[in-house]
């Protein structure tokens, strides 16, 4: 058996070099013959995963959420998809935290050795794919708008700082949203997201019992622009408490969602910038990816 090890050497704080030997040792101990590919620029991880994905049994991704997203995009269209192991070395590692994976490199290596494989849904956004969230509006731009040097040195604090600036602007997009059952929601929205996670960027949270990573459904959140200070305060209360009972907030689950807008919308797909104009359809692809999770998460 073969395993492809995709390494982003500049992810996070450049610590992965200290652990390559441990990772390769675990892979060999599990009966795999590893081969390493180092990324040198954007889209390298996707190309490696697409080129080698059907000839290996496993891919071990060592990098941040962006590297993992590239790997998922690389294997999404393959008929034979390998198992994915994730060693998060990014700055904030939203995906690992939200999915219950360890953000600690050593613990992730242990999970790689003793974890269990779990099938999870992914999202299709036009011709691209995302693992856990596609979002626009308030806070959504933080992950790709934050200057790289600020992101590197201040980590998650950089996301909060940028989000606070966006909070003062309250820019909105007029969007018509249609779900798989034909229900239509149309308004001026300051935030929208389609996710498969119990948490989005540490800001929005869902009860674990309400989110099934393999049920063929995404959770959709829409926050319309508040008409006055009272509505804004009520929406803020709902977001901070995780109880989305504000009249400004709409939450539902669907296997397919269509967003229509006359203007340009800047999206964040797992933290990567994507711009749309007109209509975009977001589909849930059920159980499309097999990921290695800690046993404590799969119980």
Mean pLDDT: 85
Number of strands: 15
Q: Structural class of the helices, strands and pairings? A: alpha+beta
Query: Helix segment count?
Result: 10
Q: Return Rg in Å.
A: 19 Å
How much of the residues is beta strand, in percent?
35-45%
The outline comes out as: elongated
Largest sheet: 9 strands, antiparallel
Separation of termini? Answer: 27 Å
Which structural traits does this protein have?
single chain, 299 residues, alpha+beta, nine-stranded antiparallel sheet, four-stranded parallel sheet, 15 strands, elongated
Report what the structure shows.
The two termini are 27 Å apart. Strands 5, 6, 7, 8, 9, 12, 13, 14 and 15 form a nine-stranded antiparallel beta sheet that branches. This protein has ten helices and 15 strands. The chain has helices spanning 20-29, 44-52, 65-75, 94-99, 105-114, 142-145, 148-154, 156-169, 229-241, 295-298, and strands at 2-7, 33-38, 58-63, 83-88, 116-125, 128-130, 133-137, 173-179, 184-195, 199-200, 204-205, 218-224, 249-254, 256-269, 272-293.
């Amino acid at each position: 058996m073969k395993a492809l090890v995709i390494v982003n050497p500049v992810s996070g704080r450049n610590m992965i070099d200290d652990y390559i030997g441990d990772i390769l040792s675990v892979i060999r101990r599990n009966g795999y013959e590893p081969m390493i590919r180092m990324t040198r620029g954007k889209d390298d991880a996707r190309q490696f995963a697409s080129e080698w994905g059907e000839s290996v049994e496993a891919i071990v991704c060592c990098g941040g959420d962006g590297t993992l997203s590239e790997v998922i995009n690389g294997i999404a269209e393959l008929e034979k998809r390998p198992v994915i192991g994730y060693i998060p070395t990014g700055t904030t590692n939203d995906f690992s935290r939200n999915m219950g994976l360890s953000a600690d490199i050593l613990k992730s290596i242990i999970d790689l050795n003793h974890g269990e494989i779990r099938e999870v849904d992914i999202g299709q956004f036009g011709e691209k794919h995302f693992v856990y969230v596609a979002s626009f509006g308030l806070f959504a731009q933080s992950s790709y708008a934050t200057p790289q040097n600020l992101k590197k040195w201040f980590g998650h604090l950089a996301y909060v700082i940028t989000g606070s600036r966006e909070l003062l602007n309250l820019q909105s997009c007029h969007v018509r949203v249609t779900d798989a059952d034909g229900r239509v929601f149309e308004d001026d929205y300051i935030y929208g997201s389609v996710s498969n996670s119990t948490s989005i960027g540490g800001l929005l949270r869902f009860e674990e019992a309400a989110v099934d990573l393999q049920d063929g459904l995404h959770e959709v959140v829409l926050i319309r622009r508040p008409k006055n200070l009272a509505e804004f305060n009520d929406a803020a209360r709902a977001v901070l408490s995780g109880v989305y009972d504000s009249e400004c907030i709409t939450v539902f689950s669907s296997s397919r969602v269509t967003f229509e807008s006359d203007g340009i919308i800047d999206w964040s797909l797992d933290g990567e910038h994507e711009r749309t104009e007109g209509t975009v359809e977001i589909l849930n692809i059920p159980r499309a990816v097999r990921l290695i999770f800690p046993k404590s998460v799969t119980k």
